[in-house]
Amino acid sequence: MKKTLNYLLFSFGLVASSGSYGQLQNGSTAPNFTLTDINGTTHTLYDYLDDGKTVYLDFFACHCPTCWNYHNTHALADLYTTYGPNTNTNDVFVFAIELDPNNGTNEFYGISGVTQGNWVAGTNYPQINPEGTARTAIISDFAVNYYPLIYAICPDRTITEIGKKTTDQLYAHIQTCENALGIQDSNKTFTVNQHYTQITIQSSVDFSDSNTTVVLTDIQGKQILRKSFSGKMETFTTESLNHGIYFLQIHQQATILYSQKIQL
After folding, report:
1. What is the pLDDT of residue 144?
2. What start and end residues bound the annotated signal peptide (predicted)?
3. Which end of the chain is more exposed for a tag (fewer CB within 10 A), N or C?
4. All domains of the chain, ordered by start, with CATH?
């Protein structure tokens, strides 16, 4: 009875908080994580993004009937089978992340406890059951206040709450990553040159009359620099930054016009 009450309290805590804060803003930068799945394999989110994959995150709970109904549509499993590793496209990865602190191996396999069934059977993508501070951090970092909560993350690390979609609708988001954010066309608009400790951005379009911003983030998604882009050229120095990988984006209000990984 006590365990059942804990399930109910945890579920209520997530759902009830949905009115006080929302999910991560669409188009914002996804935070990184390193987590180990139920089979003992460790995964780092940014590794998959840097490999050019669009990553789908399914935050769920084993006792959640809505989660179970969507799970049984096999939309994510079919997405992974058709477009994931060892396929012709190999441009997708999927994670299912269980967030109820009371659930463990038995609940995943539908053996005992408060669970909807066997979540492992027929699931070909990694399933993760973070514990302790790792679970708390994931809930906070990804603003999880109800489930199922399903995100799609583009290779440039922009995140979108995509929801319970069909396989075709899920995969169509890849075109959003490449086209709707203007990345392909804007790559022809912007030129980025690195010279020692200086980065110069040049544009074939005059942005004097627009709200355009240059944003530089580190590999963990932390914003390092933010400055206005006006006219056709902007220069900034990287002298104070540590050597490593960074991500440069050019924003025009809520739209990302340009995205590039740079090495300092």
Report:
1. 94
2. 1-22
3. N
4. 2-180 (3.40.30.10), 183-263 (2.60.40.3080)
